[in-house]
Write a structure and sequence with these properties.
CATH architecture: 3-Layer(aba) Sandwich
Shape: globular
Number of strands: 7
Number of domains: 1
Strand content: 5-15%
Strand order of the largest sheet: 3-2-1-4-5-6-7
CATH superfamily: NAD(P)-binding Rossmann-like Domain
Number of helices: 8
Structural class: alpha/beta
Bound molecules: nicotinamide-adenine-dinucleotide
Distance between the termini: 32 Å
Helix content: 40-55%
Largest sheet: 7 strands, parallel
Length: 255
């Protein structure tokens, strides 16, 4: 099946790296005009150029997604270039791995801002245009960490719990305006984020060895596998799916 996002304007936050990069490429191949929102220091410009070279349309709008003014500007930039956003992938996020008693108030605020406030800001900036356009679909990146805790990750787990519920609450409030909203909840993924997490947990003595990962989820998830799940939820193939959590974890949370 191809052309699953034909005629849609897809905005991918964190679209220059990891699963966001896989999603930017996949959504462009599926016919979307792609707005990549990522840090000014990211590869966003190169990713947009790559999509354009392959015959697609894309624009890079640099922003720190935890900053309200920057998010408003980025959404205005994408909308001005490509039209109203009708597919939003709220993906950007990061993590802090640390014993809870060593974490600080600043770290709590920073992680809540990057992982949770970003979804609030981005969704609030995109929704009016999406509603005016007749509707659309939103996918928020949650995690297995929203429902299964890992030691040293209290702050991260808490932010993902909030993303988990944010997706559901948006779905319920905006169903009558033809907006669907769902969450993807991946297990450990082979990205910079996932590799950093495994390395840090190992340093703190948490067993995330290849054998432990194999027991929990068979193997590391590939970023493209998360992008495919997001594509399904953004496309019309999931037209009656809203307010749900799609676990992309190969049984991690089923066991
Ligand atoms: N990797 C995993 O194992 C895993 C598992 C479950 C959920 N997740 C979730 O996936 C998301 C990112 O993971 P990834 O694996 O694709 O990571 P990644 O680190 O490879 O990519 C994240 C992208 O987000 C961007 N980004 C980070 N902070 C930003 C900010 N403040 N403003 C704008 N852009 C920012 C980065 O520049 C990068 O391009 C997070 O929401 C994370 O919670 C990851």
């Amino acid at each position: 099946m191809s052309g699953q996002l034909e005629g849609r304007v897809a905005l991918v936050s964190g679209g220059a790296g990891g699963c966001g990069l896989a999603a930017s490429r996949l959504f462009a191949r599926e016919g979307a005009l792609v707005g990549i929102v990522d840090l000014p220091t990211s590869d966003g410009a190169a990713v947009a150029a790559e999509i354009i070279r392959s015959g697609g349309r894309a624009v890079f709008a640099p922003a720190d997604v935890s900053n309200g003014a920057a998010v408003s500007q980025a959404v205005a930039h994408v909308t001005g270039e490509l039209g109203p956003v009708t597919a939003l992938f709220n993906h950007a996020g990061t993590l802090i791995v640390k014993p809870f008693l060593d974490t600080s108030e600043e770290e709590w605020d920073r992680l809540m801002a990057i992982n949770v406030r970003s979804m609030f800001l981005m969704t609030k900036a995109v929704l009016p245009g999406m509603i005016d356009a007749g509707g659309g679909s939103i996918v928020c990146t949650s995690s297995i960490s929203a429902v299964a805790a890992t030691p040293m990750e209290v702050l991260y787990d808490t932010t993902k719990g909030a993303c988990h519920m944010f997706a559901r609450a948006i779905a319920v409030e905006f169903r009558d305006r033809n907006i669907r909203c769902n969450a993807v909840c991946p297990g450990f993924i082979k990205t910079a984020h996932g590799n950093r997490e495994v390395e840090a947990l190992t340093r703190y003595g948490v067993d995330v060895s290849d054998a432990a990962i194999a027991a929990q989820q068979g193997r590391m998830c590939e970023p493209e596998e998360v992008a495919e799940a997001a594509l399904f939820l953004l496309s019309d193939r999931s037209s009656f799916v809203s307010g749900t959590h799609l676990f992309v974890d190969n049984c991690f949370t089923a066991m």
